[in-house]
Amino acid sequence: MNDRDEIDQRTGAVHRRDLAHVLRLVIVAAIVAVLVAVAMDNRDDVRVGYVVDEANAPVWIVVVAAAIGGLVVGWLLRRRGH
User: Fold this and answer.
1) Cβ contact 43:63 at 8 Å
2) What is the DSSP letter of 81?
3) Which of 15, 30, 62, 80 shows the greatest Cβ crowding within 10 Å of its Cβ?
4) Which H or E element spans position 58?
């Protein structure tokens, strides 16, 4: 073990990857909090049209479905190069 690793270990230094992990968790928590706030504020029904039919659904379900769809599309685009 080199001297720098020993110093970091004894002082409990925060590494950049640890800080990045915490920052990522804070951002995810903020996004979830915003989605919950939007869902609580939009409980009215809205008409959702499909190709062959239409239905009524609470706005928050439409917003959450759109968010999940965006996550799936983003994940698929990110995985495309592999």
Assistant:
1) no
2) T
3) 62
4) strand 54-58
What is this structure's pTM? Answer: 0.54
**C-alpha separations of 58 from 8, 25, 44, 46, 62 in Å:** 52, 28, 5, 6, 7
Measured from the Cβ of residue 19, the count of other Cβ atoms closer than 10 Å reads 10
d(CA 77, CA 82): 10
Across 37-73, b (16+ Cβ under 10 Å) vs e yields eeeeeeeeeeeeeeeeeeeeeebbeeeeeeeeeeeee
Alpha helices in 1-82 (DSSP H): 3-11, 16-41, 59-79
The answer on pLDDT for 69 being more than 70 is yes
What 3-state DSSP class applies to 17?
Answer: helix
* Top-confidence residue, 16 or 68: 68
Backbone phi and psi for residue 56, each to the nearest 5 degrees, phi listed first: -100, 140
